[in-house]
Amino acid sequence: MAPQHNRTVLVLLDTPLTELSSSALELLTVARELGRVEAVSIGSPSVATLAQLGSYGVELVRQAKGGGSLGAEAAATSTPLVAEVLARAVEVSDADVVLLTATFPNKESAARLAWLTGAGLIVDAASVTTSDDGHVVGGKRVFAGSWDTVCEVVTDKAVVTVRANAVVAAPADAPVEVDVEGFDVSPSALALASVPTSREVHVVAGASGRPALAEAAVVVAGGRGTFGDFTPVEDLADALGAAVGATRDCVDEGWIGHDAQIGQTGVTVAPRLYVGAGISGAPHHRGGMQASQVIVAVNADPECPIFEISDFAVVGDLAEVLPQAAARIREHQGR
Ligand SMILES: Cc1cc2nc3c(=O)[nH]c(=O)nc-3n(C[C@H](O)[C@H](O)[C@H](O)COP(=O)(O)OP(=O)(O)OC[C@H]3O[C@@H](n4cnc5c(N)ncnc54)[C@H](O)[C@@H]3O)c2cc1C
After folding, report:
1. Mean pLDDT throughout 159-184?
2. Which residues bind FAD (predicted)?
């Protein structure tokens, strides 16, 4: 689709503004296809971030000012405040579209923003395009990844949260100069009251150094077939630069933390590649992973249900198959 340069697209930059995440870069790639891209920041972008933004075609960063002595990281955890910042940014930029990554807090901010601005809202879009009459159109996978739906925003303004891995991030043909412009925000009493004090802000660092499960481009998950030994699963994940996931049974057994649970009562993932080892493919688990682009399953049972939705089925003992796969991948990478 040819970019519509008369449309202004605001992209919320996640805070803290260190290196932009892969989902942020994907969001900028989507935004460029819709119109002229401006970013909204809560806090000061670093020189490196500005260079990254320029290479992705962002012409202007609108930096929120106001809220007294609030730190950017604390302010960014308040969904009412983020919504008010974005509403003000929409006002000063006269933007037509606002895009956010599909994190849980962002989805709440997006809903508040849509209410504040009268915009139409799409959450968890897997694609964002426009209709012939210029409306924003979002593609969504629903009902546990079993149906593809298309939602058209019929209001003048649109707010969309975009799932990780919706597109492959690609820089602009040529980098652009980025301007930074401040804009004043006068947060409401509600927004200020919802900002946690510094003592209440917990920034949980990924101790493993692996990507976040919901955003990862590659996920390696283990099930009951691991019998509690996740070493081969973690080793293959590290060879692939992947996140580690699991079925609920493994979490219930205490073999792995709750954050790793994929499924209807866990995290929903839609990576480019999902590898499931020792997982039967129960509906509760499939609901959280069957929207993955390529599914590889390793299972000792050739009749296991997960093979029905797999692109590649490997019949074998995961304790033998996964280390061989990890070794070949490392060999291929020259490590
Ligand atoms: C209300 C509710 C909500 C639920 N929510 C979730 C959820 O969010 N996520 C979730 O995952 N589950 C959820 N469950 C549980 C779900 O129904 C299944 O019980 C669970 O997904 C099965 O996990 P599993 O595939 O690891 O185990 P199993 O079904 O026991 O499968 C183990 C598989 O490992 C294979 N295997 C055994 N040994 C090996 C080996 N050496 N090498 C390779 N393969 C081997 C077996 O052939 C088998 O296919 C929920 C259940 C309920 C009731």
Report:
1. 94
2. 224, 247-248, 261-265, 278-285, 299
Ligand 1 centre and the CA of 327: distance in Å? 26
Side-chain-side CA neighbours of 273 within 13 Å: the count stands at 11
Pocket of ligand 1 (CB under 6 A): 223-225, 247-250, 261-266, 278-280, 282, 284-285, 288, 298-301, 304, 317-319
Nearest residue (CA) to ligand 1, atom 27: 224
All structural domains of the chain, each given as residue ranges with its CATH number in brackets, are 8-200 (3.40.50.620), 218-333 (3.40.50.1220)
Annotated binding site for FAD: 224, 247-248, 261-265, 278-285, 299
Amino acid at 174: A
State the Cα–Cα distance between residues 251 and 160, nearest whole angstrom: 32
What lies within 8 Å, CB to CB, of 210 at 6+ separation is 216, 237, 238, 241, 242, 243, 244
Six-digit token pair at 119?
Answer: 């915009």
Question: What ipTM goes with this model?
Answer: 0.99
Cis ω on the peptide bond leading into residue 16 (within 30° of 0)? Answer: yes
Query: Using one digit for the tens of pLDDT, what is the confidence trace for 23-33?
Result: 899 999 999 99
Q: Whose CA is nearest to atom 47 of ligand 1?
A: 301
